[in-house]
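Design job #97: recover the sequence.
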């Protein structure tokens, strides 16, 4: 044992030295961003654009036209008023393409998920936030916003003609509109202008029938993005918001240059092109750290960092090594004792088995007759069966009538409620091609002893609560084992004190109990069965209600597998293992993602179609609806409840 301890300690020392050397060399950076210049080839794991701003200006010019009362010819045209309305939108700054590269580490288990939208800006598809972005985007995207109005002192009426006192002239005021798009690079320049020459009669332009309504904007100065000399930045790049002050100038009355004095000054909120904001993603020594930055249209709106104590993690290393060293002799001794005991037990069992077989053999008769038919070639005891987890979904308690398709119901029926505040929602949105609610959950999934007890149905409900609360509340509520077993007992008669009556339960009985009594004090409000084996229904349930409670008749071929696929052979028979209930919390074109025995399981669409026997969409106001009264996909509780109620009435 002394040699084993020395080898063990030397191995630990070598690994630790390699770790320190690699840490100094790599410096714990996880991702590096670099601006891509021109056609320079730069290998990257992801590309994204920095956010920029585009200004859309709607100009309305009121022009006073004086015509001759004799021949209706235009004698004079003057700009009576000019009104501008602006709207700022966040767009990709295509002049700043950022290449992001992942820096791996042999001692680290890293998982990076960076998502961009169709426009190339950083987005968090699965993230929900109602923090700073609500006020920022409200100020940035308000449209229209009146920038300024310059009114003449003379009275004017749109489209109404007035005659001069001598009756020789007719005066009329007419509105003209135009829209200007100001690009991000123009907003970053020192100034820009738009020419707008209005020809009031649409014929040949002249002094009498031409009005110059051109506009010039001046900024606080030209700004350019600044990067390090090598162009590399450790982390993810974004831009802060800044105030851009614009002074607006119009043409002089004589039609020459623009006026030196501004006619109006306005301020708009835009991404600051001159500044870069780095969101670092780094590794911590000896501990597991979490970074969860959230973006909207490329702007950072929230950043969650979880870093345990590195000193505490470092101290645990020598303590664990000492524990391992001192436990080696004890483990060797324990192995010898256990091995000897097992040999004695095996010998005792073989002797008992031999005696039992001898006792069951009939004694030969005096005439030497052979034993009765059937006893001659009697087989030994059956081979042990695989130790399958119990799972525990019972068949449906009552016959399930055919149901109308959930997805067809929401696509064909324009759901509108009497409440005027909700009617604006209109029809339910179609389910996207992928959804991953399960990836948001930041706490470990719990098996709730489903490998030893038949409590898969309440365990599935507990996992749904965890996912709902993480998505809608920002933190997962995790029911305890006692709370799950109490719900199992209430729905089935199970006795958790002595683990008696562990017979499982059917889904509808539990759903009724969950609705009436709750699980961990959290009751659901309503539920509805969806079409069996219908993938579109399942996706609609996951997208709209955050989960689908799916019942499966499991084949033995799925035992011990992390990916459930359809196979062939006797182990692939429908229900050859047992019934099982899982919450489906995500999907894409390749797999459905469910929680079983405390782990994320991938299930092929073909597997679900073949082995699904019942599934339910469940609505929980307590867990799926935010304080705003809407769910994470911005549908109201009343609309979601109405959708289930109307579907129930058609089954």
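Job complete. Output follows.
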């Amino acid at each position: 044992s002394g040699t084993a301890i020395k080898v063990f300690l030397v191995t630990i020392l070598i690994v630790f030295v390699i770790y320190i050397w690699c840490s100094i060399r790599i410096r714990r950076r996880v991702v590096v961003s670099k601006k891509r210049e021109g056609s320079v080839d730069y290998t990257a794991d992801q590309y994204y654009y920095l956010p920029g701003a585009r200004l859309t200006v709607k100009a309305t010019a009121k022009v006073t036209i004086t015509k001759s009362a004799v021949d209706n010819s235009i004698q004079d045209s003057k700009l009576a008023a000019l009104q501008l309305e602006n709207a700022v939108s966040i767009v990709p700054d295509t002049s700043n393409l950022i290449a992001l590269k992942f820096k791996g580490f042999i001692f680290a288990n890293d998982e990076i998920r960076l998502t961009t939208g169709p426009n190339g800006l950083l987005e968090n598809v699965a993230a929900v936030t109602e923090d700073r972005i609500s006020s920022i985007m409200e100020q940035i995207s308000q449209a229209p916003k009146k920038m300024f109005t310059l009114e003449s002192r003379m009275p004017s009426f749109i489209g109404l003609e007035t005659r001069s006192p001598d009756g020789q002239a007719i005066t009329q005021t007419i509105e003209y509109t135009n829209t200007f798009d100001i690009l991000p690079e123009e907003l970053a320049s020192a100034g820009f202008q738009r020419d707008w020459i209005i020809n009031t009669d649409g014929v040949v332009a002249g002094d009498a029938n031409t009005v110059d309504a051109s506009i010039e904007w001046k900024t606080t100065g030209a700004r350019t993005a600044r990067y390090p000399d090598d162009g590399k930045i450790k982390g993810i790049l974004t831009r802060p918001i800044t105030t851009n002050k614009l002074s607006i100038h119009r043409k002089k009355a004589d039609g020459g240059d623009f006026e030196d004095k501004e006619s109006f000054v306005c301020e708009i909120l835009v991404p600051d092109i001159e500044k870069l904001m780095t969101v670092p993603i780094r590794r911590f020594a000896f501990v597991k750290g979490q970074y969860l930055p959230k973006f909207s249209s490329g702007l950072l709106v929230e950043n969650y960092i979880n870093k345990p104590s590195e000193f505490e993690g470092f101290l645990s290393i020598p303590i664990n090594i000492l524990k391992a060293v001192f436990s080696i002799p004890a483990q060797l001794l324990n192995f010898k004792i256990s091995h000897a005991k097992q040999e004695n037990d095996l010998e005792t069992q073989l002797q008992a088995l031999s005696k039992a077989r001898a006792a069951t053999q009939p004694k030969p008769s005096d005439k030497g007759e052979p034993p009765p038919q059937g006893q001659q070639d009697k087989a030994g005891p059956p081979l042990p069966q695989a130790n399958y987890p119990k799972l525990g979904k019972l068949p449906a308690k009552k016959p399930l009538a055919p149901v109308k398709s959930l997805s067809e119901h929401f696509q064909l029926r324009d759901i509108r409620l009497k409440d005027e505040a909700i009617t604006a929602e209109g029809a339910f949105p179609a389910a996207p091609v992928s959804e991953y609610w399960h990836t948001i959950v930041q706490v470990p999934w719990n098996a709730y002893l489903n490998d030893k007890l038949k409590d898969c149905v309440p365990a599935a409900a507990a996992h749904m609560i965890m996912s709902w609360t993480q998505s809608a509340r920002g933190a997962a509520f995790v029911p305890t084992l006692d709370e799950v077993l109490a719900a199992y007992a209430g729905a089935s008669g199970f006795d958790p004190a002595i683990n008696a009556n562990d017979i499982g339960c059917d889904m509808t009985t539990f759903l009724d109990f969950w609705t009436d009594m709750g699980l961990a004090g959290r009751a659901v409000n309503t539920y509805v069965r969806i079409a069996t084996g219908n993938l579109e229904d399942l996706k609609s349930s996951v997208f709209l209600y955050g989960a689908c409670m799916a019942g499966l008749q499991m084949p033995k071929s799925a035992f011990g597998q992390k990916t459930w696929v359809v196979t062939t052979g006797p182990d692939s028979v429908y229900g050859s293992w047992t019934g099982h209930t899982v919450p489906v919390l995500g999907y894409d074109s390749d797999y459905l993602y469910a929680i079983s025995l405390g782990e994320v399981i991938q299930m092929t669409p073909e597997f679900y179609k073949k082995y699904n026997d019942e599934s339910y969409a469940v609505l929980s106001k307590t867990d799926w609806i935010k304080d705003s009264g809407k769910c994470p996909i911005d549908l109201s509780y009343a609309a979601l409840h109405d959708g289930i109620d109307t579907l129930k009435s058609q089954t």
